[in-house]
């Protein structure tokens, strides 16, 4: 069964590639880059899923040669790959597809432990019904933690507090979890997640694909750049843009160096004076840009969300593809439902487990 799914996924991917091949072109990274996944435009389109609204995924088994998990269900078992995602009603369909994609492409899917950061309760049943053997844990993330830190202007009030949950992973997860892969909810993994897990971070606390050709200036305001005390933070750092939707995080170092507090400090400054445009990304850039272990760009083929308003579709960046990321304002499930998909949205569909209401 599994090979059929894989094979059909591969065939549809291959077909799309063939169809698209003539139009594949490179474009300037700065244009392609849209910072974070949880955009502000779909709040009104929020819809509630009932537990019956997802199909059950087929079972996934470890291949021969996987390090056996000793204590099944034990989060501290050392032989596991840890993945953290947020889970909320708005992006639920995306998160479920992301999990499904990871399981389908992992050689050792039973060795992946999922950590779900939630602000809504009641999602546990849905997860275990959709993925009966999944090893996972839910963590409640209190939105008030963030509401205190973001100013209450109308636009910012629309921001999803869960966008900021990635800043609190190190505090929320058990101390025995020493490394985690953080993933946004609008992506699918099309390679073995163990390869990403095995990335060397060297002395660095986080790893992510870096984009040194992107215009770094635009993420911060003129006021920020003219204040030497602030902008001096980047002196001697060779700061490059990176997307916070795919990160490998050394949680021990994060805890040791207190990065949560460092990020919060910048958010407090932002609350009083505008040093960047809104988003959860800039404080990460302030703290980590220039101190990021580079990861192959194939692990974040981002920008596929394009722009819903303009109806623009994006192509893949040149090079290998291990992860497809629909960052930007368009989401594949919304475009597919409205029968106006972008060509690459067909690469997301094989992982969709949502049952359309009859
Ligand atoms: C980078 O962005 C800033 C601010 O938006 C702009 O003023 C500047 O011209 C841009 N630089 C390049 C090389 O595009």
What would your notes on this structure say?
With 358 residues, the chain is an alpha/beta fold. The chain has a domain of 226 residues: Spore Coat Polysaccharide Biosynthesis Protein SpsA, Chain A, CATH 3.90.550.10. Helix content is 30%, strand content 13%. The chain has 14 helices and eleven strands. Strands 3-2-1-4-9-6-10 form a seven-stranded mixed beta sheet. The chain has a two-stranded antiparallel ribbon with strand order 5-11. A two-stranded antiparallel ribbon has the order 7-8. Helix 12 crosses helix 13. The two termini are 26 Å apart. 2-acetamido-2-deoxy-beta-D-glucopyranose binds next to loops.
């Amino acid at each position: 069964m599994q090979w059929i799914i894989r094979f059909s996924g591969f065939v549809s991917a291959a077909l799309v590639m063939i169809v698209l091949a003539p139009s594949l072109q490179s474009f300037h990274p700065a244009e392609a880059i849209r910072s974070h996944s949880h955009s502000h435009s779909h709040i009104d389109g929020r819809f509630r899923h009932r537990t019956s609204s997802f199909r059950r995924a087929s079972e996934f088994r470890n291949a021969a040669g996987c390090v056996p998990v000793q204590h099944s269900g034990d989060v501290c078992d050392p032989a596991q790959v840890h993945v953290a995602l947020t889970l909320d009603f708005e992006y639920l369909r995306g998160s479920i597809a992301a999990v499904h994609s990871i399981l389908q492409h992992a050689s050792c899917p039973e060795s992946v432990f999922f950590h779900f950061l939630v602000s809504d309760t009641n999602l546990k049943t849905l997860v275990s019904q959709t993925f009966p053997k999944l090893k996972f844990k839910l963590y409640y993330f209190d939105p008030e933690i963030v509401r205190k830190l973001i100013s209450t202007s109308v636009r910012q009030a629309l921001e999803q507090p869960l966008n900021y949950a990635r800043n609190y992973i190190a505090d929320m997860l058990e101390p025995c979890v020493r490394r985690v892969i953080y993933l946004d909810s609008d992506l699918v993994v099309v390679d073995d997640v163990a390869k990403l897990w095995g990335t060397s971070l060297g002395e660095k606390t986080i790893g992510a694909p870096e984009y040194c050709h992107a215009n770094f200036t635009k993420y911060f305001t003129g006021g920020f750049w003219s204040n030497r005390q602030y902008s001096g933070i980047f002196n001697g750092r060779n700061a490059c843009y990176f997307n916070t939707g795919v990160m490998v995080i050394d949680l021990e170092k994060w805890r040791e160096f207190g990065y949560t507090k460092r990020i919060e400090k910048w958010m407090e400054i932002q609350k009083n004076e505008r040093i960047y445009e809104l988003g959860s990304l800039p404080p990460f850039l302030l703290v980590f840009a220039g101190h990021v272990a580079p990861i192959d760009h194939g692990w974040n083929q981002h920008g596929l969300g394009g722009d819903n308003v303009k109806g623009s579709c994006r192509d893949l960046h040149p090079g290998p593809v291990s992860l497809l990321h629909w960052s930007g304002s368009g989401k594949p499930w919304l475009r597919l439902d409205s029968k106006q998909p972008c060509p690459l949205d067909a690469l997301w569909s094989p992982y969709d487990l949502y049952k359309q209401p009859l």
